[in-house]
Amino acid sequence: MRRTVFPHKLLPWLLLAPQLAITLIFFYWPAAQAFRQSVLKEDPFGLSSAFVGLANFRKVLSDPAYLNAVQVTVVFSLLVAFSALAIALFLAVQAEKIIRGKGFYRTMMIWPYAVAPAIAGMLWLFMFNPSFGTLAWPLRQIGINWNPLLDGDDAMILVVAAATWKQISYNFLFFVAGLQAIPKSLLEAAAIDGASRRHAFWTIVFPLLTPTTFFLLVVNTVYALFDTFGIIHAVTGGGPGKSTETLVYKVYNDGFVNLIMGDSAAQSVILMVIVIALTAFQFRFIERRVHYG
Amino acid sequence: MIAKSLWALGLVAVPFAAHAQTEISWWHAMTGANAEVVEKIAGDFNASQGDYVLKPVFKGTYPEALNAGIAAFRAGQAPDIIQVFDVGTGVMMGAEGAIKPVAELLTENGATFDKSQYLPGIVAYYSNPAGEMLSFPYNSSSPILYYNKDIFQKAGLDVDNPPKTWDEVWTAARQIKSSGAATCGYTSTWLTWIHTENFAAWNNISWGTNENGLSGNPELKLDSETYVKHFQALADLAKEGVFVYGGRTSEAKQNFTSGECGILTESSGGLGDIVKAGINYGIGQLPYDATAPGAPQNTIPGGASLWVMGGKSDETYKGVAAFFNYLSQTDVQQYLHEQSGYLPVTMAAYEASKASGFYEQNPAREVPITQMMGKPPTENSKGVRAPNLPQIRDILNEEFEKMLAGQQDAATAMKAAVERGNAAIRDAAGG
Predict the structure, then answer these.
(1) Which one of A137, A203, B132, B243 is at 20 to 30 Å from B35 when CA atoms are compared?
(2) Least CB–CB distance from B70: residue in A44, A242, A258
(3) Who among B258, B405, B431 is closest to A131 (CB)?
(4) pLDDT tens for the 293 residues of chain A, in order
(5) DSSP letter string over A71-132?
(6) Which residue, among B184, B398, B426, would best test binding to A if mutated, counting the most A CBs under 10 Å from its CB?
């Protein structure tokens, strides 16, 4: 391969400058502010401010409500990431089999991605409202006591379903592309050797899809951790009790509703550390098993 | 239309007086019909004089508007006037350097401020322990009882006499369910505001020490016998399916407007949506606990008030004072009251509405006023305040939800709520 070498020292920096500026202003500066705020105890208006060291972190980490949020987040993220990947893969494989109207099916499958999280949340909220929800009514009729307003498990199912539904389209798109990249000759060879479709899928298609799956795993985990705020805000507001209060929702609630700036900042710093650790872990250990063909 | 043409008038006025006009910003959280009232009042004020231009800016929901105001203050860009909802009152009062007390502003600018002209319940709520009014009450409401007359008829209940006490509500609600008139007997919006804060005032029992937090940080008293008995009754009704829980804020209104529930307790400000739903409704006073001595006492206001931010120029304050003066005028208050459904702030406006026969045509509109003015407020009924009231409400809601789901009884729920709430108040006060 031929290496391109730039003769100027300044040019690469100049080309990088816009991206660097954006990163500095929109990522590092707010992050630094969060760090600063996390070691201070301040009133909402910032009229009085005192350095308290790590007291905010100690308080947050010993708060049972915070540990509850950790648990809720783990359950929620695992359910969303797994369901969104599994369902999207299934649909992508099924869509591949279709001969006529492939494009139409694909387009329809991608649509939900264009729906804003809060809107998606509202749609699910209305469909499953225990009193007037179009889909809650049949559930009641068949004897299921469906009440996400008071039952924590029902509420969790509802937000997981809404968050998953929203992400399936995105995953579907990537899986379809991934499937198209798999050489047909491999599958034909397997068929000639007498492999069943299921066998061919697990031994050829699935391993060859791992780069896509891995990429989506990272994206979906980040999605479940952060981008689902709008859905939770619209559907349950963290309730009932604290059964759907994720870490991100708690940061918002403590900081912007309850106006406890120090606690909220400490939580967002912890969240930052978790995400860095998680991403590093995924790339370090899972990527090794990824087959890049 | 009117607002638009007045705005046009304002534009016409600009070239003549541009050099002398001072701009006053007003951040608010009003939507729909109430937002039109804001625009109209601002337009009329601007047309009434040439020295100041009042500019209302919509800033989202109540919490969003408060957050925007706080963020702007921290950035040195605070608005002149900001509308803050009732539960944010404690936060604003705690921010002494950030605000300008309204009573002080008015007297400094030559306006005579006579407390007795204002509705006592409302003024008491927005005053500091020394009795100085800190913010200007803009929109106030009070919880009342709504009932569906068709459902009452079907259930064999008295259509013209809604239940007056909580025991009567429970009985009527059970009858609605058992007679098959509706699947749900009773529901309520805002359990914290109606069933703890107003429950305390209306039944003259303590919500917390230090006059419910008005004269110092409170220690919650919500685990006393009257509350426990009341919430156990609610929990039992929830178990029987007679009481249906709608959510933490005003969601339950839909359970009533959809015809699912026969009785609803909700803010008087929610009347508009109930009228729009087109159901055959009736209105009654907020029910009280018949075993509480002295009940019914008086209810306390919800809604929002206008806060003036500190550190502005004298000229700006003069303009704000002129606006508040304008806002206190009887015809403006009367317009605000009759258009928006919120309570009038001055006695004169109330009398004027009464004299015009407004309440004969709309008897429901007087219920929240008579409720609030019933008796001179006691230490239990001036309102509730805590440096972190939104957080206290969150804690209460969480415990109520666990109780209504059958995970704990009322005594356990109230005890946990008080312990967690008191810890949170101590923590907030320590900072």
Answers:
(1) B132
(2) A44
(3) B258
(4) 566 666 778 888 899 999 999 999 999 999 999 999 999 988 888 888 889 999 999 999 999 999 999 999 999 999 999 999 999 999 999 888 887 888 888 888 888 888 887 888 888 888 888 777 888 888 878 888 888 889 999 999 999 999 999 899 999 999 999 998 899 899 899 989 998 888 989 999 999 998 899 889 988 988 998 889 989 988 888 889 899 999 999 999 998 888 888 999 999 999 999 888 888 887 787 777 666 65
(5) HHHHHHHHHHHHHHHHHHHHHHHHHHH--TTHHHHHHHHHGGGGS-HHHHHHHHHHHT-TTT
(6) B398
- Amino acid A53 reads G
Helix residue ranges per DSSP H, B223-379? 225-240, 253-257, 271-276, 314-328, 330-340, 347-355, 358-361, 367-373
ipTM value for the complex: 0.81
Contacts of B258 in chain A (CB under 8 A): 131-132
A151 touches chain B (CB under 8 A): yes
**Hey, what amino acid is at B147?**
Y
CA atoms within 13 A on the CB side of B382: 20
A42 in B contact zone (CB under 8 Å): yes
CB contact under 8 A, B401 and A240: yes
> A233 touching B, CB under 8 A?
no
Contact A47 B255 (CB under 8 A): no
Kindly state the helix (H) or strand (E) to which residue B56 belongs, with its residue range.
Answer: strand B52-58
